[in-house]
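Notes from hallway chat w/ T.B., transcribed later so I don't forget. T.B. wanted the structure written out for a chain they're using in a teaching module, and asked if we could keep both sequence and structure tokens in one place. Agreed to drop them here.
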Amino acid sequence: MEKVKNALFALFFLVGAVGAQAGNLDTLKAAAKSYVAAMETALDLSETPSCPELIRAANEYARAKTAYYDAARAVMPALVQSARGETSGTVDEQELIEIFQGFGEDQDEEASAVLEGKLGACPTSNESEKARSAIDSARQLAEKFLKDFGQMEGV
């Protein structure tokens, strides 16, 4: 678990120079902004949101988390370089640090738990089941990425 936390830290905060992958890094930054916004929305839900509002927030959270980890996989070579300390701080790295300021694994887990818990209060429907499934799929995608990232040599 500590290795996964270290990999998550590296992923969230240590993106180095990417050269030819600049377009992918721009995609990662945009995805990071959406992911953080979706976590904020989940954490700021009212005590008793309407089920349609909750389902919308859950689907957006799952979509944003999935997009973030897909974008991170696209720049994995740069992430590995950065995690190994082979790059120095860049403007892109600083931008990502600022995007994730105050957000990380704990907030992600809390956002998932809030959404799943509140979805449990909604009547069972096709939409609520799809939202639960989307959150679970996004969690599995993130875990797979972090496992793969953590197994990279030197990370």
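Follow-up for T.B.: DSSP finds seven helices and no strands in the chain. Might be a good example for the class.
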